[in-house]
Write a structure and sequence with these properties.
By secondary structure, the chain is α+β, with helices and mostly antiparallel strands. It has 13 helices and eleven strands. The protein folds into three domains: 183 residues, Jelly Rolls; 51 residues, Arc Repressor Mutant, subunit A, CATH 1.10.10; 57 residues, Arc Repressor Mutant, subunit A (Orthogonal Bundle), CATH 1.10.10.60. The strands form two sheets. The protein has a six-stranded mixed beta sheet, with helices on one face. A five-stranded mixed beta sheet has the order 5-4-7-2-8. The protein is globular and about 70 Å long.
């Protein structure tokens, strides 16, 4: 299994709050940061996006897509500068699948969708994204996105039976395409697991770890599979992923085990065995090092609602 598919599966990705906005210039809408990830696309016209902590607005044209993460506030606007209207004033009272309109003329159409993730693992993806991922319509990566955007526009132009289901699936597909585009654009220089997928040899090693996370891989074995010397592999992995190979492996293995503790009634010993640990004590030691508490305590805290990260 490729690492991105594995991560998205662990995150229990859910789409929420899909919206379509048609606006007449001048207009400006301010949005509170979405708690996990927000996707957006310009279906017609142009607008600007201003993101907290970024030095300048970015111009978006028809066919451009973007991702926002880490709960940063942002503003969408078009035309000359004007008063920014908070999004609750604009979207109050809208129903699922409806279009919100500002003004009588449609200068721009923007669609957006929030993605909710499993709170316990959201940081695995959210923390490796920059404040703004912008994929211009004219980029090479945008070619694969264009067909989905055309379907999304057609579906929201004339909503019908099952439209919420269709828009949710299209939004999820576009999210994956935007993540692919981000990897292609950044190459392997981001220093996190996601951009490391742009390095063919390191990606091969990551895929092996996600395919068989319970296996007791050695750095030498992973290096051989990647077609590199042990020292070369260890250095490049640490540079491109941001941590040594076995630290990454243990971290992912423990996060996967933690999900089972939260979502199943399997015993700690059964989960330890499933994830490659020969004893409950060795599993508990590794688990506490990664998650900050022993597995039994972690499960109890989660079930009681006291643990939310």
């Amino acid at each position: 299994m490729d690492p991105l598919t594995d991560v998205l599966g662990q995150l229990d990705l859910r789409s929420a709050q899909f919206a379509r906005l048609e606006a007449q210039e001048p207009w400006a809408v301010g949005f509170q940061g979405y708690r996990h990830i927000k996707f957006g696309a310009v279906l017609q016209g142009t607008c600007r996006i201003t993101v907290a902590d970024l030095p300048a607005p970015v111009t978006l044209t028809e066919g451009d897509c973007y991702l926002l993460g880490n709960g940063r506030n942002y503003e969408l606007s078009g035309g000359p500068a004007t008063r920014t209207v908070p999004s609750p004033e604009v979207f109050t009272g809208r129903t699922e699948g409806s279009t919100v309109r500002i003004g009588a003329v449609c200068d721009a159409i923007v669609v957006g969708c929030g993605f909710d993730l499993d709170d316990a693992n959201a940081a695995v993806l959210v923390d490796v994204l920059p404040p703004l991922v912008h994929v211009p319509a004219g980029s090479g990566a945008a070619r694969s996105i264009r067909a989905a955007l055309e379907l999304l526009r057609a579906e929201t132009d004339a909503p019908g039976l099952g439209t919420p289901f269709v828009t949710e699936r299209l939004s999820q597909m576009l999210l994956v395409h935007l993540l692919r585009a981000h990897v292609a654009e950044r190459g392997a220089e981001g220093g996190v697991w996601l951009t490391a997928l742009g390095d063919r040899q390191i990606s091969a090693a990551l895929t092996l770890m996600h395919d068989m996370p319970a296996r007791h891989w050695t750095v030498g074995e992973l290096a051989a599979k990647a077609g590199m010397s042990r020292s070369q592999f260890a250095a490049r992995f640490a540079k491109t992923v941001g941590m040594p190979p076995l630290e990454y492996l243990v971290s992912w293995r423990i996060r996967s085990a933690a999900r089972e503790l939260r979502t199943t009634d399997r015993t700690v010993l059964a989960i330890a065995t499933r994830w490659g640990y020969g004893s409950e004590s060795s599993f508990s030691h590794a688990f506490k090092r990664v998650m900050g508490a022993p597995p039994g305590t972690y499960r109890t805290q989660w079930q009681s609602g006291r643990r939310r990260v």
